[in-house]
Write a structure and sequence with these properties.
Number of domains: 1
Strand order of the largest sheet: 1-4-3-2
Shape: globular
Oligomer: single chain
Largest sheet: 4 strands, mixed
Length: 119
């Protein structure tokens, strides 16, 4: 589960950039995202707003110790789309010795992603 400081915006970002589709969403009484399950290809991703005593968003922690690795059809296109949507490019998409093209971004919510596509 990715804890974020703005669940609604994070869901839109993941839909727009990674092509995520929303499977389920539960809102708290005050309208925050208590739980949202997204699908990116065959992968499930849970997203929730930060709730005191339950989770802490990456931004509050000053970053994340986790790097999410995502296989996509076109890493260059996904990285460009992410940066256009507010992500920071940490490493440009480049060919790697194992044959894939891989780049690294930090999304606007403090989570770090490697986006990769086969040569």
């Amino acid at each position: 589960m990715l804890a974020v400081h703005d669940g609604a915006a994070a869901i839109r970002f993941y839909e727009d950039v990674f092509g995520a589709t929303e499977e389920t969403k539960i809102l708290s009484d005050d309208g925050k995202v208590a739980h949202c399950e997204l699908r990116i290809g065959n992968a499930a991703l849970m997203v929730a707003d930060e709730f005191e005593g339950h989770n802490r968003a990456a931004r509050r922690l000053g970053g994340t110790s986790v790097i999410l690795y995502l296989d996509v059809d076109d890493a260059d296109r996904v990285a460009r789309r992410a940066v256009s949507a507010g992500a920071t490019l940490l490493r440009p998409v480049e060919p790697q010795p194992h044959g894939a093209r891989v780049g690294k971004i930090e999304d606007p919510f403090g989570h770090v992603w490697m986006v990769a596509s086969e040569g």
